[in-house]
Amino acid sequence: MIELLIMIIKTAIVFGVVLTHVAYTTYAERKIIGRAQARMGPMEVGPHGLLQPVADFIKIFFKEDIVPVNAEKSIFKIAPVIVLVFTMINLTVIPFDRNFILADLNIGLLFILASASISVYGIILAGWSSNSKYSFLGGIRSTSQVLSYEIALGLSLAGVVLAAGSLNLREIVIAQYNTALGIYAIPQIIGFIVFVIAAFAETNRAPFDLPEAETELVAGYLTEYSAFRYALFFLAEYVAMYIMASLCALCFLGGWTIPRFVTDIIPFLEKVPGVIWFAIKVYAFIFLYIWVRATFPRYRFDQLLNIGWKVLIPAAVVNLLIIAFVKKFI
């Protein structure tokens, strides 16, 4: 009974902290993009606009929930729930520190890839059930995008699994720490670059936000959604960004650890809690998401598919072969 209570408390803490981060990531994104465009961003609600996420939540909560007359109503209503549930469930297998993890699965990495694939079904169903050409095209684009980039994402992470000898995320971090450099991003630079690019496509973020593409498809699969159902998709997208940022930190940047040669030079850094190092790495990746959105234009859809199939997948295969060769003969 006590163990169950502890698990419930841990789950509430993780979900609460992540959802708070999501709320203020939207604020940070507006401020950073505003600065990139030589403007201030949100300033009116609270000091320096700090209460803007609260105002947005109140506004969207009280908006009218409209379901199109010709939509497949039951599927239309459940689609955003599918996306959010199978995105949020990934938080349970992410180790935020050596001893802070909700479910320490031996196949944690595989679990995240599988549940991320299932969440895409929600987007496809949302596009189809809306009975709108713009929504349908957004759903089709999302399907093609995932087929292209999930292969590259999986292959880039396969190199990490091969090097660490485990699918357990905690063991992957420990294996990195025991290497000379303390991270996999440098020796597996090809896989790291492939992962970063594929992560943008996997989360439908600019410059690969083709399933939404406001200039072409109004809002893509989100076109017919409003009020709280729209917010569920929005929430799932930002949680997925944190999942990918966490995967990057765990699989390529040493997770909650810092390399030994750094602590040998600056010994007091060992006293810093691991969750702080983990958070810094995650924040850096989230900043990269926002900076890229403010900097790069959206790709055409044919360009997106060409990059996935003709560049990233071959590069990921080459990276995997190099790691296998090194593992076998060196």
TrEMBL record:
One of its GO terms (cellular component) is plasma membrane. Keywords: Cell membrane, Membrane, NAD, Oxidoreductase, Quinone, Translocase, Transmembrane, Transmembrane helix, Ubiquinone. NCBIfam families: PRK06076.1-2. Belongs to the complex I subunit 1 family. It is a multi-pass membrane protein. Its EC number is 7.1.1.-. The keyword Lipid metabolism does not apply. NDH-1 is composed of 14 different subunits. Subunits NuoA, H, J, K, L, M, N constitute the membrane sector of the complex. It is found in: Cell membrane; Membrane. GO terms for biological process: aerobic respiration. NDH-1 shuttles electrons from NADH, via FMN and iron-sulfur (Fe-S) centers, to quinones in the respiratory chain. The immediate electron acceptor for the enzyme in this species is believed to be ubiquinone. Couples the redox reaction to proton translocation (for every two electrons transferred, four hydrogen ions are translocated across the cytoplasmic membrane), and thus conserves the redox energy in a proton gradient. This subunit may bind ubiquinone. It comes from the Bacteria. This is NADH-quinone oxidoreductase subunit H. Pfam families: NADHdh (PF00146). It catalyses: a quinone + NADH + 5 H(+)(in) = a quinol + NAD(+) + 4 H(+)(out). The chain crosses the membrane at residues 6-24, 74-93, 105-126, 146-169, 181-201, 230-253, 274-292, 307-326. The keyword NAD applies. Its main location: membrane. InterPro entries: NADH_UbQ_OxRdtase_su1/FPO, NADH_UbQ_OxRdtase_su1_CS. GO terms for molecular function: NADH dehydrogenase activity; oxidoreductase activity, acting on NAD(P)H, quinone or similar compound as acceptor; quinone binding.
